[in-house]
């Protein structure tokens, strides 16, 4: 018997025969209810004991009229709880005992979720429009005057660059390019067979045919977004066009992500901006944290972009306005130099392969002391690249070095037969093994893992698989005040502002601890209240008697 248990703003497929206990760590899953979030904020996963199907209680509310919706959900929650209690009272004792356990566990999570949402201090206050600070605008104006081309011509190049960057995709893997090339070859060969030209040309002309075929394939691949190449910004005018195109949106995106720290006492003293470009990240961090940042390190391999970023930071006297900024072309080789906040804004897209992206993420994570911020465009492939980096750090943070773990525990006289059995059990996943050993040793013991443990700070309230990965890109809208050098309006501008979307992930170098944090709202689903007929009660009775 399958029934949909309708809870306020949540849905789950369930049976009355569930156990409200923690999940089993062995391969045999004896316990059927699992809170998939450690702090019990967002999701509850249930397993159907007959069909082995998994379902998730999804707790979601819209952003608008939040408090009103929360109160309405609380009323529905109380009504549903009363109706479930009446139904359970009609069931046999054995069935009722299990139903009460399951019902209580589900509504306990709902209560925690509602309580976290009613805490207004945890809401992220997002600005409706982001405006570049006046010193940055004045510095950009002074930097444009020193260019050889006129501001009007530079603005025209910036508009063309904006259209290109709006559709800039990640480089496709070699296997995908090879498959697409083979399909295009087959398509062209079929067209040639219709014209029957292959048999009329001598064997000496085979090389010419292959050359023509390769050219046709390359043309079609370029039209299908297989023409990735790194940005070429080697002149001051090219850097000026990029600044006119991306200074305001880059600033808005980074400032929007920094707003996620609202309600937290985090204030970095050292910041690393990898791929800093024209310095939009510095202006966002400086506005947010001010003089609390003692060292802001900007790393960019392009000397032209670095020089233009310095020109924007100069005042009327020609000197740098800020003394806490340093510029480098490469990262500091020593891993002892760590930063409280590391930012990589639209940098992963400039790397040619997945291996190089993960290598960069690893290098940045080793230099992170607290938070790592990854930001990229709102396209699908950018979102997938961020998920790859997220999953890589989460999995590497729970991958134990077995021999080093044994040596560490033996040195501290913590090794036991139980821990040894967990380390030897090959049926356990890396996460299960890490979690079990972590619970059996004191919290001050730092277990040796492939990388330092990571947890997702924003925008996700959990460290599990992304539920939107198979649906659409998880993007965030942002609005910024337009900066133009020609005094005209662009076709994307509306009331002096432009809007865009981007994806981001903020990772914290720490283990997740239970806390009452508000979950992110993704979608609203309401399935109604649970209703059981006499036939349902009789069928429940037949399962046990």
UniProtKB/TrEMBL annotation:
The keyword Nucleotide-binding does not apply. GO terms for biological process: translation. It comes from the Eukaryota. Its main location: mitochondrion. Keywords: Iron, Iron-sulfur, Metal-binding, Mitochondrion, Transit peptide. GO terms for molecular function: iron-sulfur cluster binding; metal ion binding; methyltransferase activity; structural constituent of ribosome. It is found in: Mitochondrion. GO terms for cellular component: mitochondrial small ribosomal subunit. Mitochondrial ribosome (mitoribosome) assembly factor. Binds at the interface of the head and body domains of the mitochondrial small ribosomal subunit (mt-SSU), occluding the mRNA channel and preventing compaction of the head domain towards the body. Probable inactive methyltransferase: retains the characteristic folding and ability to bind S-adenosyl-L-methionine, but it probably lost its methyltransferase activity. This is Methyltransferase domain-containing protein. It comes from Ancylostoma ceylanicum.
């Amino acid at each position: 018997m399958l029934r949909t248990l309708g809870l306020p703003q949540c849905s789950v497929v369930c049976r009355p025969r569930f156990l409200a206990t923690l999940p089993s760590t062995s391969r045999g899953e004896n316990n059927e209810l699992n809170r998939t979030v450690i702090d019990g904020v967002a999701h509850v996963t249930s397993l159907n004991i007959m069909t082995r199907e998994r379902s998730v209680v999804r707790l979601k509310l819209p952003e608008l009229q939040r408090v009103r919706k929360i109160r309405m959900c609380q009323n529905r929650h109380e009504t549903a709880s009363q109706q479930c209690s009446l139904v359970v009272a009609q069931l046999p004792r054995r069935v009722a005992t299990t139903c009460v356990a399951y019902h209580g566990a589900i509504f306990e999570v709902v209560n925690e979720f509602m309580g976290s949402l009613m805490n207004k201090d945890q809401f992220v206050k997002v600005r409706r429009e982001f405006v570049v600070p006046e010193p940055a605008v004045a510095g950009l104006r002074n930097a444009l005057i020193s260019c050889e081309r006129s501001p009007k011509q530079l603005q025209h190049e910036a508009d063309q660059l904006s259209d290109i960057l709006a559709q800039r995709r990640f480089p496709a893997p070699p296997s995908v390019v090879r498959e697409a090339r083979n399909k295009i070859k087959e398509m062209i060969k079929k067209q040639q067979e219709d014209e029957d030209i292959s048999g009329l040309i001598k064997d000496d002309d085979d090389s010419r045919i292959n050359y023509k075929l390769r050219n046709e394939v390359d043309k079609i691949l370029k039209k299908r977004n297989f023409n990735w190449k790194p940005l070429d910004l080697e002149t001051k005018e090219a850097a000026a066009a990029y600044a006119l195109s991306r200074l305001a949106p880059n600033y808005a995106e980074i400032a929007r992500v920094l707003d996620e720290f609202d309600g937290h006492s985090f204030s970095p003293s050292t910041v690393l901006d990898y791929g800093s470009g024209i310095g939009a990240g510095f202006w966002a961090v400086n506005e947010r944290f001010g003089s609390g940042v003692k060292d802001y390190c900007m790393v960019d391999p392009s000397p032209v972009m670095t020089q233009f970023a310095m020109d924007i930071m100069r005042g009327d006297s020609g000197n740098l306005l800020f003394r806490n900024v340093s510029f480098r072309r490469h990262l500091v080789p020593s891993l002892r130099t760590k930063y409280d906040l590391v930012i990589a804004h639209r940098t992963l897209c400039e790397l040619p392969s997945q291996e190089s992206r993960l290598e960069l993420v690893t290098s940045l994570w080793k230099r992170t002391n607290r938070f790592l911020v990854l930001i990229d465009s709102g396209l699908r492939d950018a979102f997938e690249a961020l998920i790859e980096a997220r999953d890589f750090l989460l999995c590497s943070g729970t991958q134990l070095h077995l021999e080093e773990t044994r040596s560490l525990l033996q040195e501290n006289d913590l090794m036991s037969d139980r821990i040894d059995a967990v380390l030897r059990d090959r049926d356990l996943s890396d996460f299960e093994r890490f979690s079990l050993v972590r619970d059996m040793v004191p919290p001050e013991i730092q277990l040796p893992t492939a990388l330092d443990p990571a947890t997702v700070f924003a925008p996700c309230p959990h460290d599990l698989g992304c539920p939107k990965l198979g649906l659409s890109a998880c993007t965030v809208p942002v609005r910024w005040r337009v900066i133009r050098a020609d005094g005209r309006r662009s076709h994307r501008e509306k009331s002096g502002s432009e809007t865009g979307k981007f994806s981001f992930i903020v990772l914290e170098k720490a283990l997740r601890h239970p806390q009452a944090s508000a979950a992110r709202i993704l979608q609203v689903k309401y399935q109604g209240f649970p209703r059981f007929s006499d036939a349902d009660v009789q069928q429940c009775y037949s399962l046990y008697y």
